[in-house]
Amino acid sequence: MKKLAVFTAILLSNIIWACGFYPYGESVRFSFLNPDNFPYRNYASFYYSSLSFSQSDISGPSGQDNEKLWNQYCKGNIDLDDINRVLEEYSYSDIKPDIQNTFLTYLYNQKDTEAIAYLKFAKNCEYFNTWQDDPWERNESTVIVKRNNLLHKAVSLIERAVHKDIKKRYAFLALRLAFYQKDFHTVNTVYDRYFNVKKTENIVDIWALYFKAIAEKNKALANLYFAKVFAKCPEKRFVAWQYFSSKIPETEVLKYAENASERAAVLLLYGIYNPERNLENLKKMYAEDKGSEGLEFLLLREMGKLEDWIFTPYYTLFDPSTRELSYWSGDISENKSVQQVLERSETDRIYARKVLDFINTVDFSKVKTPEVWKFAKAELLWMTRNYSGSIDQITGLKKILPSESPIHKDLDKLKVLNIFAAQKHGNAVIPEITKETIIKNKTDQPFIFALGRELEYLGNTDDAALLYVSLEGSNREGSSIFYKSVKNRNKTYGDFFSDYFEYFDAVYTPEQLKSFISKIQRLKTDGDPFYRNYHQLKSAQINMLYDLLGTKYIRENQLEPALEIFSKLGEGYFDAQYNVWQREDKEYYTRAGKVFYKNPFYHLRYTPDFMEEKDKIKLSKITITQKLIEYIGKADDPKEKDRDYYYFLVANCYYNMTQYGNAWMMKRYALSSSGNFSIRDDNEEFKAVNKANFYYGKALANAKTQKFRALCLRMQGRCENYRLDYEKDKNIDYLIHSDSYEEDRLQKNRYYKDLGNKYKDQYSDLMSGCDFFASYFKARR
């Protein structure tokens, strides 16, 4: 039965998540290194991400290999953009002598009829170089025939071509036509005659090798070919990766590699396919080809993984974006899950140390881009908590980088992260030396949130709060930051935050919140330049924080401090926020937590009115708190003749300030039925209605008539039912509904037992419904 309960819990949890949003993957991944700032844009499709690889456009010089080859054919006198226009934009009819294009002008001036004829033939072939030309397949047979004719013509033109470059280009066209014709025999025949897998001199050779790899029946050998294409041709990287079979053992492919460059190319693709730790692969690549560009890209990918594995859990308490820990592995407590996530983060810091040890063995004079390795070293030192070493590495690297290098921005942020993390607990601040960088990067949400988290971990919740508040607003880089609290214990739907107010509401103590508000007020008065230039809280935000502070005092039953805060805000604030007098749709605003629907001292939710509302007040947090203090004072006064009455009113108010009442907004800003656990300190009181039970008991102790005592006991029984529900809901078995639950609860409810034993004549009236409540209340005297 217990296993069934756990299974049902998992099932229902998944159903709930499927019906609503829950952060995962890229929405939680933390990254500080911007791969676009490094010289590997041609690998953009393979940047580290929790998403599947996706094809990216290749732009810039590295994407113009064909244009460069044509320019070389033309003795290096042609504008590359003109060549690109002819290749990518012009049609067959555009290739003529009178068009304004330096490429065509050169060919016509040189009377290069061979090259011109080739370009025209290539344009004729473009339509047929796809798998499916007509989505309805009405012209399929015609296309096959025409493509076959073009294929035979291309083969004949190869022999007639004089210039070796044009001959190769015709041969490539033949390969491509044969590929789309699914004629792999011709692919192999043409390739073996006009190309050589050991001689890939230019881009046409690489393109040809791509088709040879597709036609190759030996899959291990095909993998080698695809690896060579991947390494040498950015435009073919994505399709080469798609065809590459990572299931074939690496050793099977490597035995066909004839030199270090080919072995490095094979290792590169296996490294990209590896979503986990790739250090051994990096070491092998370094041994084979120290100057490999692919080696440095894999190092960059490894840094992306480590950022995710270490900092996503460290700062947000979510699992890394590419890893998921089970929340149902024998112990359903959130404490264990959070602890598992943090422990894994520490394990990955140990792995970061191993990567750092490897970099310390690297000869920077032999690698292609030393600054990439030095940046990685600086970040690894930060990851392994060697903050001074990381700062020294950053300082040295900045001195040798060109001033226009975009890497400076990443280094500046990395230095600030080191400075923050290096501070001692209890003495952490926003150091003056970091403020300029923070202001420059104030829209970078992961960076700002990480700084706030560091301060919070180090005991400075004031400055942490300032940074969290600044994340709110438009024009921010990236999406919202989603994060959890170390206070999380039970798995609930609402176990994460993306808004500072929700976080303060759930996590900050009244003392922490009061301290933050005081600091904000000082900063406004002092005119602190950092605060002025970074993020100033609006008056409405500060008022809401005061509202929250008073609400937290209510949760702790500190009524006098709560009233002081509410009174400071004034009736005008609450008139705008909560009161219903000018609202037409009371029910809507009540459900939204904006208004108090009924006086909580005299009316109970889902219960017919049974008390006369003698003390009418305009409902707000001020007036309700005032009356609660007043009524408690009267109830506790031994000289008061109506102590039972006032205790009953107080009990009603405390009842209504729970999730079952009509004044729950005294303690909450939203009401949810998604789970019975909250990390707010008063969760049990809000769910189990203990304080109302206590005051109904006080009313009972001071009651003068038997009927009123019975009514008080009946109300205690109602509160006890809620407590029993709460206790049961804390156990996973609550998901398995039992037909006998209501009967079991009735048997466990000691107040109902007392009602039946001590007030037998009244038991039937009070337990049959609420219709007798009015007469029993009137019988108080």
Task: Give structural notes.
The structure is a single chain. The chain has helices spanning 2-19, 65-73, 80-88, 102-109, 113-125, 140-160, 164-180, 184-194, 203-215, 219-232, 237-243, 250-254, 260-273, 279-288, 293-316, 334-359, 370-383, 387-400, 407-421, 435-440, 445-457, 461-470, 500-507, 510-526, 529-534, 539-555, 559-569, 571-577, 586-591, 621-635, 643-656, 683-688, 690-702, 706-729, 741-748, 750-758, 760-768, 773-778. With 781 residues, the protein is mostly helical. The protein has a domain at 585-778. It is elongated, with a radius of gyration of 37 Å. The chain is built from 38 helices and no strands. This is Tetratricopeptide repeat-containing protein.
List the helices and strands and how they pair.
Elements: H1 2-19, H2 65-73, H3 80-88, H4 102-109, H5 113-125, H6 140-160, H7 164-180, H8 184-194, H9 203-215, H10 219-232, H11 237-243, H12 250-254, H13 260-273, H14 279-288, H15 293-316, H16 334-359, H17 370-383, H18 387-400, H19 407-421, H20 435-440, H21 445-457, H22 461-470, H23 500-507, H24 510-526, H25 529-534, H26 539-555, H27 559-569, H28 571-577, H29 586-591, H30 621-635, H31 643-656, H32 683-688, H33 690-702, H34 706-729, H35 741-748, H36 750-758, H37 760-768, H38 773-778
Helix pairs in contact: 2-3, 5-7, 6-7, 7-8, 7-9, 8-9, 9-10, 10-11, 10-13, 13-14, 13-15, 14-15, 15-16, 15-17, 16-17, 17-18, 17-19, 18-19, 19-21, 21-22, 22-24, 24-26, 26-27, 27-30, 30-31, 31-33, 33-34, 34-36, 34-37, 36-37
